[in-house]
Design brief:
4 domains, two-stranded antiparallel sheet
Length: 665
Amino acid sequence: MKISPIINFNYRNQSLQTKKQENQAQVQSKPMGLDSMLPSAAVYSAAQINFGENCDVLKSQLLALDDVHCPGCGKKMLSDKTIKELVKEAGWIRSLPEYARFLTKNKDYFHPQFKMYIDFTTSIAQTQPEKTISDVHGIQRSGATKIMLNTLNNESEYLNNLLNTEIFSKNDREKIKECIEYLKSNNNFPKTAVLKENLLNTLGSLENDRRWEIYTHVKKKIQNVYSYQMALRYNPENSDGLTEHAYIVRHMLNYSKSNLTKVYMNVDEEKRFNNMLICRDCVPKYATFKYIQNSPDGYEKIRNYVNDIADNIADNKLVGNNAYLYEFMGAVNSVSKGKIHLTRKQVQSIAQDKVFKENKSDYMFENYEGIPCACCGTETITHQQKLKIYKEINECENLNELINLSTLYSNHLTKKGRVIHERLKQIFQQNPDVTEDEMFKSLQTSSKKDISDEMQKIKKELLEYAEVNKLGYFEKEIINDFLNIVKKRFLNEKPEQAFRYDDYDETVSNTLGRIGSLHSKKLIVIAKRNIKSLYIKDLLVHPAPNVVEKTGSKSKAMMQNIFKMSVLTVDHISAKTIGGKDNYSNKIGYCKDCNNEKSGIRFNVWATIHPEINENLPKHLKKIAEIIKHDYIRSMRHYPENAAKTSMRLAAGKLNIPTKYDTLD
């Protein structure tokens, strides 16, 4: 069953391109120049940070978006253009009922502090529709002081209830009582500067762990009334010709106007990933990302923001900057150190496709057969060869025929594929009448045992490392926390349940990543060693339901996935996620298996983990040199040498390979 050679330069079809990108972005890399700010786990985390271009274009595109939820408060944000359109619409309104309908229709765009304004206006419009809009504003202005007094009284009661129901130290109780006395002593709008100073000196200086929650609760309630009062102010001389209600609408909507802020506040360079929209009301509160990540619902708000960006990508509103989506997610995962963990599963497929199409990298040698993987040395296959094998897999009528087929193409099996192939043969030899369910149960049990055995080795090595390096009590406690979580959550998984690598990765970041010493990076490397590889192998024996449905059986779906891992794909020696260029000097060919596993890991680390590159990379480049020479590809004659030199340089002494290859007649 010979596979005929395919010698042409037609690029792979779109389905393979989409699948290729879906297997990228599994490992987050440290951005160049940010080593002092990123956690040491960044090189191995589950998301990417790219260094995008077009920052000015991106900023203008982001600021033009509407209906994006603010990651600080969760309210919808508006562009300056839309605010002007709404203000213009409000300016044409003449009757109170019409104005009430306008406010109700657009209520999602007004911040919570203006809810009482909308509710009161709507209520009067229903009961006294003959009143003018100006009359309603007059009533609201006269009632603003009363609302403030009620708010001050309510917050005093809130603090009194805390004293009666919560346990505070003597010092904290005195500070809370002092704050209560101050709030009760005001019979009008308190001066903002004095109010803020008093709240900081009392509630803001409590010893109790809930001081931030208590301080924010009181401050926010009072601040909302201040915003309400400010919104009602109107001076015809400074109104830009707007009617009273149009001017007030503009003032209120300006709180919802989108602004740009940074994810990393201490990064001065213009980097695409570092831009984030935030409403004007939240700009002074959330000047740094830590306030968002520490809020109870911070994850939900950031996830909503990411979903909104994905929606806008699907609507072609970030063309040229679609990759911002993944870059931002990677930045959030890194800066929050695991507190907020975003994955690509949360992004709609149409947005993923657009991100991929914008960032795909073509590689002409993917269309040649027999090129050994530059990492593992597997004899790779082309996309067309893969489709032929798929067809033969689908024509198999039983397990025996599938095993014979995999034996026929065994030279194309990657290391993971060979392990499964050998286990299949052993199962079938022991029981020729084995059913598909029995076979998968055996394969899945063996896979889980591989992971369990590796975790036992990791446990032993972590404890030995702690003793040899005389780690302190704090570090040892964190290591024990990690090991206990692993034992509870990952060592008792059922065979039929696919290994949860994202959860494991997050566990590593949330425990070992907290150590914050020079030992942290080494401990993380130990904890993740081989785990991702075993996870990818575990996925092979847990084929996705949609693939099973398409092929008609789990065994055929598994076999297709195994050979899919043998397709030659392009890898950037210096990952694009850390600034690597998208040119041929920085490209090399890996089987999909190795490419999935490497992802954004730095090449010097990868070369250390896989010393077999010393043997297989020269074979890979030699085969490509033969292709270049045979097909007279003059424009590529320096490619093997340049790729070898790039690999040597980036390996930082971990490689010793030839840098001369014969590509000329």
